[in-house]
Design brief:
The chain is α+β, with helices and mostly antiparallel strands and about 200 residues long. The chain has helices spanning about 5-10, 130-165, 185-199; strands at about 15, 20-25, 30, 30-35, 45-50, 55, 60, 70-75, 85, 95-105, 115-120. Its main location: membrane. It comes from Apaloderma vittatum.
């Protein structure tokens, strides 16, 4: 059943964050904004209600009455359509569902947005994620391999430098580090390699 004039009474819209995260002891803001077809007057009312949910973290945190006393502050501005509040020093027991309700006669009927507040202990600012761990596991071994290769190349270069300094010449039985030339394909090359292997 739709009554005449009911359309005008349903023109208020309220918006609030679906979920808000907070840390124990740090102020948190619960944002709520509204639009009304009627001008804002002194008749406007804002009601924030709290519907607690059960929370368990090591031990149960039952809700108690009057726990928000001296911890709720108004940070909104009705002229700007802002009905936000702030909670000082949130605690884990503050976890729950908050409802922002605004009435601005004749706009009194509206949607009912809910904000779920999740309060947790603030952990370490740096958390070792799987991506960071994987990067470390790949990066460190790579650095070690590069360092070892550089050390080995440095030693080899030092040995070659010493040999040149003292006029060292390779003996006929030393195997060359240079790539084998095309002569190895010939009979003479094969014979030479066979002899070196025997010696």
């Amino acid at each position: 059943l739709v009554l005449p004039g009911a359309c005008g009474a349903l023109s208020m819209e309220i918006r609030a964050s679906a979920k808000v995260r907070a840390f124990v002891g740090e102020q948190v803001s619960l944002k709520c904004s509204f639009t009304s077809s009627a001008p804002v007057t002194e008749s406007l009312t804002v009601d924030w209600t709290y519907r607690p949910i059960f929370h368990y973290q090591s031990v149960p945190y039952p809700t108690t009455t009057g726990k928000f006393k001296d911890r709720i502050s108004w940070i909104g501005s009705v002229a700007k359509g802002d009905a936000s509040i702030a909670i000082q020093s949130p605690a884990i027991s503050d976890n729950g569902t908050f409802i922002c309700s605004v009435k601005n006669p004749p706009d009194v009927y509206h949607n009912i947005p809910q904000t779920v507040l999740i309060v947790t202990e603030r952990g370490l600012s740096f958390q070792l994620t799987s991506a960071v761990l994987l990067s470390i596991l790949v990066f460190l071994p790579s650095v070690v391999v590069v360092v070892l290769l550089l050390v080995r190349m440095g030693r080899k270069f030092g040995v070659l430098k010493e040999k040149k300094k003292f006029g060292y010449k390779k003996s006929s039985i030393e195997v060359s580090d240079e790539p084998e030339r095309t002569e190895t394909a010939s009979c003479l090359g094969k014979l030479r390699n066979w002899c070196l292997n025997c010696v």
